[in-house]
Amino acid sequence: MSEHILFLTGKLAEKQLHNILEKMQPKFTYTVHQLGLKVAALMTADMIGRRLTDTFGADRILVPGRCRGDLEALSKDLGLPIERGPDELKDLPMFFGQAAHKIDLSRYSVKIFAEIVDAPNVSVEEVVKRAYYYKQNGADVIDIGCLPSTDFPHMEDIIRTLKQEGFTVSIDSLEADDLLRGGKAGADYMLSLHESTLWVADEVAATPILIPEKHEDLVSLDRAINIMQAKNRSFIVDPILDPLHFGFTQSIVRYHEVRKNHPDIEMMLGVGNITELTHADTMGMNALLLGICSELNINSILATEVSKHACRAVKEADLARRIMFAAKEHDMLPKHIDPGLMALHETSPFPYSLEEIKELAGQIKDPSYRVQISAEGVHIFNRDGLHSATDPFDLFPKLHVENDGGHAFYLGVELARAEIAWQLGKRYTQDQTLQWGCATDTAEPTVDLHTFKPAGTTLKKH
Question: Is residue 346 part of a domain?
Fold first, then answer.
């Protein structure tokens, strides 16, 4: 027997909800019930409790995504499950598709080594502070970056302090003496050893990351691998990722060759040579690089945040590794898993067409302005009419708020957000901040829907 769902909505959305459900042709049966309010987004749990007198034989109730209040308590009172649907009606088909296979992003296979560069010039306190920042953003290992021919008298203090704070630590240098000191101080990993410096691994317990003796020399790397395997020692192999136009494609080929020749060894990819040395947004780079890691079973990356444009590289890599793990586990494309790596665009930026916005505008009977966007531009409307433009300045003379500073300021902010969303192809929702994926930390996406949102400028003034 199919599930029966009761959809609660408002007057303005009732017709559209019927149309969407009819086009969906869902496997479940349903009832659409208009709860006696105009705007569905203003629905609250208390209002439902007062006004809903019949549940129409439903197995569960779906309410608008912005419905405020304690739905759990209301569910107990009514004796059936109540849940929030999507914020926008047009997202209902996707909502039910996602509900059918919710993706777990709690797991991953790639360790993130986050490097604190130029550590000889950084105090112990600053290193610890940076380590906690990296850990908060997903780092598993704190990498202490040495400098060539530079004294590092407080290296041991840094490593011991980090270990006391519970961090996993790697020491990063091409000089054997640095690596030996770091290993003796308690570092868990050493970056990097090659065939001629493998003796360091005999002196300390730290796990070495192996690189070729000379750049691109995979023969020497193979010999180092064989030596470590003969000693039954753990190790990680890094064939070295090169920057674009300086051997990037060939370095990817090297990674593939090493994996083909050594199917079971642990490998590392130094993503910083791409994220740091390419002036483009790093989210897409991290997605692609972690996708390569997923395909080649590379379970460690070395990430940095030196360049200003790469200031969120660790956080982005953390989400990318989770998305790629889930995609691989479910044998699916890395699509519709999580939107956090889509800062500038959205899968469905314009849920409503201009014709649908015109139809909604024709139903408005009050003076409060609504702002929406479509592929054609920015639209603002109330009972007195609909105005459209691609430049918000063209709208100001039509709004008649010259003598209402608060309202004018509010509309200016909203229209600016709407213009940005229209230009970039992002989702715009009035009275909500634009979403920039994992690039920003905003309270809005995780707002407590058990509480009631404070009145905004417009509500305060009208």
Answer: no
List, for residues 84-97, the tens digit of each pLDDT value.
Answer: 998 888 888 888 87
Distances 101 to 3, 63, 381 between C-alpha atoms, Å = 17, 20, 38
- Does any domain span residue 437? yes
Task: Put residue 216 in one of left, alpha, beta given phi > 0 → left and psi -120 to 50 → alpha.
Answer: left
198 and 280 housed in the same domain:
yes
Residues spanned by the domain of 168: 111-337
Would you say 373 and 422 are in contact if contact means Cβ atoms under 8 Å apart? yes
Residues 445 and 404 in one domain: yes
* Residues above pLDDT 70, as percent of the chain: 94
Residue 83 sits in a domain of what CATH number? 3.40.50.11600
Asked whether residue 331 falls in the same domain as residue 419, the answer is no
pLDDT tens profile 354-364: 998 998 899 89
Strand partners, 31: 6
| Structural domains counted in the chain | 3
User: Which of 56, 74, 100 corresponds to the end of one domain?
Assistant: 100
List, for residues 290-338, the tens digit of each pLDDT value: 999 999 999 999 999 999 999 999 999 999 999 999 999 989 899 888 9
How many C-beta atoms surround the C-beta of residue 286 within 10 A? 29
Residue 290: how many other CB atoms lie within 10 Å = 29
Same domain? For 67 and 132 the reply is: no
Full-model pTM: 0.83
CA distances, 105 to each of 302, 314, 322 (Å): 21, 16, 5
Tell me the per-residue pLDDT of 135-189, one tens digit each, with 9 for 90 and over.
999 999 999 999 999 999 999 999 999 999 999 999 999 899 999 999 999 999 9
Is the pLDDT confidence value at 63 over 70?
A: yes
Residue 444 has pLDDT above 70, yes or no: no
Residues 383 and 301 in one domain: no
Q: What helix, strand, coil percent values describe the chain, rounded to 5?
A: 45, 15, 40
Q: Is 192 exposed, middle or buried (0-12, 13-18, 19+ CB in 10 A)?
A: buried
| Domain end call among 100, 125, 142 | 100
Residue 105 lies in a domain: no
The C-alpha torsion from 257 through 240 and 266 to 334, rounded to 10°, is: -80
- Give a yes or no: residue 427 inside a domain: yes
- Distance in angstroms (rounded) separating the CA atoms of residues 78 and 80: 6
